[in-house]
Design brief:
GO molecular function, one term: metal ion binding
CATH superfamily of the largest domain: Jelly Rolls
Shape: globular
InterPro entries: Cupin_2 (IPR013096), GPI/OXD (IPR051610), RmlC-like_jellyroll (IPR014710), RmlC_Cupin_sf (IPR011051)
Pfam families: Cupin_2
CATH architecture of the largest domain: Sandwich
Strand content: 25-35%
Helix content: 10-25%
Protein name: Cupin
Keywords: Metal-binding
CATH topology of the largest domain: Jelly Rolls
Largest sheet: 7 strands, mixed
Number of strands: 23
CATH class of the largest domain: Mainly Beta
Order of helices and strands: HEEEEEEEEEEEEHEEHHEHEEEEEEEE
Number of helices: 5
Radius of gyration: 20 Å
């Protein structure tokens, strides 16, 4: 299999070319959450807005997205039906969870990764001093069909002009929009339904769902560090697996796989050669490598270099990460 540079360019989303959407979700007008930016890089993600730009529509069994937020900006409490895995590209972030966001929390630094257990309400905020960026992997081609919001999020949004229809679309009264005939507002979860969302402590989540950057660096000095998967530090099988690569774990020889592969640099610059061309991947770039394409990776400069590699698996993208 060969691929021209132009064909590969269409499969690489550069960090500087990312197109944000500031009205992606129901809390887009809610104070404290109204400055966040949502990015859909591979697949349609879970955005509720028709304004959301999708960079690569073809999905490899999972979706790739990102969230950019200024300091003190937060993403409201929500849940997903499939896996949601984040790694920190820029900044310092606090992840919190539970019905009211008080059951547990963890602070992640640049390069750290968290596989948030499926079926719990979760939120996150930038607690750093500059604009921050987190990258996300969502399980499934359709990312579980959307977002499940904590009831208070829907109520707060309504008070600030945004209504979510039961069709999963947003309507903004500030723009003169209203629910179409025959479309009802998204119903709030009942108290009985809320019992299905576990309240997990920090001690329950940290050991099996969080991996630290420097621990992964230490484990990848001779071979890629298996981060998420049946044999990973985070033992989950949500329909994709994640490896962590550094300068020491790259043999430099070309390889091909029968899986879809997505490369996401965290630190340093990476030269990627393939059968048909060559390019350099920078931190924040996302490259979708098709099955069967022979390619190789080498750090393009001296110094620190780290990269996440995601591949689809045959495992179902379901409730594999759930705790109770």
């Amino acid at each position: 299999m060969k691929m021209t540079p132009a064909q590969m360019d269409a499969r690489i989303v550069r960090y500087g070319d990312l197109k944000p959407c500031k009205t992606a979700f129901i809390d887009a007008h809610t104070p404290g959450s109204d400055q966040k930016e949502n990015f859909t890089i591979i697949g349609g993600g879970v955005s509720e807005s028709a304004d959301q730009h999708v960079h690569i529509t073809e999905t490899p069994g999972f979706n790739i997205g990102a969230a950019g937020q200024p300091p003190k900006c937060r993403n409201s409490l929500h849940s997903h039906r499939t896996a949601e895995v984040f790694f920190v590209l820029k900044g310092r972030w606090r992840f919190f969870w539970g019905r009211w966001g008080k059951a547990g929390e963890v602070v992640l630094e640049e390069g750290d990764i968290i596989n948030i257990p499926t079926g719990i309400f979760r939120g996150f905020e930038n607690i750093g001093t500059d604009y921050g960026m987190i990258m996300a992997v969502l399980g499934g081609d359709d990312a579980g069909g959307g977002v499940i919001w904590a009831p208070q999020v829907i109520e707060d949004a309504r008070n600030h002009g945004l209504v979510l229809g039961e069709n999963g679309k947003l309507y903004d009264s500030k723009k003169g929009q209203a629910l179409p005939a025959g479309v009802s507002p998204m119903p709030l979860l009942s108290e009985e339904q809320l019992k299905d969302f576990p309240e997990l402590t920090t001690a329950q989540v940290l050991p099996d769902y969080v991996a630290r950057y420097w621990d992964m660096v230490a484990l990848s000095d001779r071979q890629p560090c298996k981060v998420l998967g049946a044999e990973g530090l985070l033992r989950d099988r949500p329909g994709f697996e994640i490896d962590f690569l550094t300068r020491g774990s790259i043999p430099g020889t070309a390889y091909a796989t029968d899986r879809h592969e997505v490369l996401m640099p965290v630190r340093g610059y990476w030269r990627m050669d393939w059968d048909g061309g060559s390019t350099v991947l920078n931190p924040g770039d996302t490259a979708a490598i098709p099955p069967g394409l022979s390619h190789s990776l080498t750090p393009a400069m001296t110094g620190e270099a780290a990269l996440y590699r995601i591949r689809n698996t045959d495992d179902p993208a379901g409730l594999t990460g759930r705790l109770s």
